[in-house]
Design a protein that fits this description.
Protein name: FANCE protein
Radius of gyration: 18 Å
InterPro entries: FANCE, Fanconi_anaemia_gr_E_prot_C
Largest sheet: none
Organism: Pomatorhinus ruficollis
Number of helices: 9
Helix content: 55-70%
Pfam families: FA_FANCE
CATH class: Mainly Alpha
Structural class: mainly alpha
CATH architecture: Alpha Horseshoe
Number of strands: 0
Length: about 200
């Protein structure tokens, strides 16, 4: 709809107010999916700040409250949004999931799925750097495994940080099968760069 061009003309505070007025954070998931498909057609593209605000308003509450796998409508909306605005999406949503205490099994599965199927290579690197900024936990090992499964070429400094983190954390994960798989994956995928 032509009315959506207003999203490109809002200041950040106006956009937050508009999202609140439209109750986007609680709109039904089929409507969310439709709204995200409209966002894909929007020209010009949203600014980074606007996309980050929308990522937060549209998805943050929904993703953090997941206790079972996301519905197909929510998954379609997430995939659609990620396909165009993966960088602001990762900055907002992945960061929030990483900060969330507790197991967060559904959030972890969702992050793995997005890494494996939706994110652009530069966003996969962003997810990796975000994971390495927080203390490593059993919950995060599958996310790292998903990142390695993409077999992306990593910048040397990011690969060094990954290897250093794994070396430092090894004693804490001495009995973890997931950690052993992760180390094996690093040695397999990046064998020419890891000495």
């Amino acid at each position: 709809p032509p009315e959506l061009s207003i999203l490109n003309n809002c200041s950040p505070s106006q956009l937050e107010g508009l999202c609140s007025f439209l109750q986007l954070s609680t709109c039904p998931e089929p409507s969310l999916m439709c709204f995200c498909s409209w966002l894909l057609a929007l020209t010009p593209d949203l600014s980074y700040t606007s996309a980050a605000i929308l990522a937060e308003q549209l998805f943050l509450r929904r993703v953090l409250s997941l206790t079972q796998p996301p519905s197909r409508h929510l998954m379609a909306a997430l995939t659609s949004f990620c396909s165009k605005y993966s960088h602001p999406f990762c900055r907002v949503l992945v960061a929030a999931v990483l900060q969330e205490p507790g197991e967060g099994a559904e959030q972890t599965k969702l992050m793995c799925e997005l890494v494996e199927e939706c994110l652009e290579p530069h966003s996969v690197q962003l997810v990796l750097s975000q994971v390495l900024e927080v203390p490593l936990s059993e919950k995060l090992l599958p996310v790292l495994q998903a990142v390695l499964g993409r077999q992306e070429v990593l910048p040397p400094e990011l690969l060094d940080l990954l290897v250093l983190t794994l070396c430092q954390q090894a004693p804490a994960f001495a009995t973890s099968l997931n950690f052993a798989k992760l180390v094996t994956a690093v040695l397999t995928v990046y064998q020419s760069q890891v000495s």
